[in-house]
Amino acid sequence: MLIRPDALGSQLSKGLRPVYTVFGDEPLLAQEAADAIRVAAKADGYGERQVFTVAGNAFDWSAVIAASQAMSLFAERQFIEIRIPSGKPGKDGSEALQRYCDGLPPDVLTLVTLPRLDKTQMSSAWFQALDQHGVTVRVDPIERRALPQWIAQRLARQQQRVEDGEAGQRTLDFFADRVEGNLLAAHQELQKLALLHPAGVLSFEQIEAAVLDVARFDVFKLSEAVLASQLARALRMLDGLEAEGEAAVLVHWTLAEDIRALARVREALDAGKPLPLALREARVWGAKEKIFERVAPTLSAGALTPLVQAAQICDGLVKGLRHPDWPAEPWMGLRKLALMLAQTVAGPRAPRYSLSAL
Fold it and tell me: 56: phi > 0 → left, psi -120 to 50 → alpha, else beta; which?
């Protein structure tokens, strides 16, 4: 049974299942989910705990099987935790996990923790065995658009909130900008606010003074921001990526790939191909697919040609080749390219901005 982290508390209150699997790449939420399962298990009498960490193909799975079948020495029930940091138990591990699930006695509760899994891993026999015998908690990152609401919910847990209306939304957006991509740090900043201020309404000035700029940016999230024409956010992300030491070549490659994909989709559409086929042939999927579905039909080949040329010029900039019409500094060139792409996607009626204005 696959559930989200926010549904875990309700499920635990209805009675414990024999196997819990927590997987995902958001450390804070994964840790909180695993802690909630541990607390519930302890409260229900699972007093003895054994932890196994699967490291490499040489891991001895027989020890895990034996532990599940052995009588507890210190408690009537035992809690077994299996950590698989790589997300790949291997052939022997796959078979062992299936045997493990089929032979679990009623006095053993198991927690399996895993990183983010792809579709193939989630379709594997070992993962399906875990899911069929218990509860699977999928932990996804909190996207930027959902981050203000997540912050508001966390503030409510500590009896704090922002002002009502537009002022409060501005405060939440400011908070989100400061902690985007770094949920562990966001949690720490929330705890700081609980220590600094009593329960009740927090003003923008209080949050501005307390919350540090701890945002961490992903180059692929930058791509989504540019394609969504979120200019200020995209430029802020570029500033963050530069400060974090990200390679300018990688940032350029990501933006250039988006431009080339848009050009390929437009070419396919002009050739009479349906949009779904054009997107598939251009290898566009996931979050970008929805953006491309919206913007690709509105763009002409003539509008995309200058972008392709700009991407070629910027490719030279990040590799040390100067161009008379472009900034000499690679990251300024990347900002110009991002701005050109964002404004082209936004359409001719959108406001025009220059780098100096932003």
Answer: left
Average confidence (pLDDT) over 119-134: 93
- Only one residue has tokens 């802690």, namely 35
| Strands 134-139 vs 2-3: parallel, antiparallel or unpaired | parallel
Contact at 8 Å (CB) between 186 and 148? Answer: no
Residue with tokens 């990526």: 241
Q: Residue 347 above 80 pLDDT?
A: no
- The per-residue pLDDT for range 155-205, each reduced to its tens digit, is 999 999 999 999 999 999 999 988 888 899 899 999 999 999 999 999 999
Q: What is the set of domains in the chain, with CATH numbers?
A: 2-139 (3.40.50.300), 144-210 (1.10.8.60), 219-357 (1.20.272.10)
pLDDT at 74 over 60: no
In angstroms, what CA-CA distances link 82 with 20, 68, 88, 89, 137?
10, 11, 12, 11, 15
The 10 Å Cβ neighbour count of residue 341 is 24
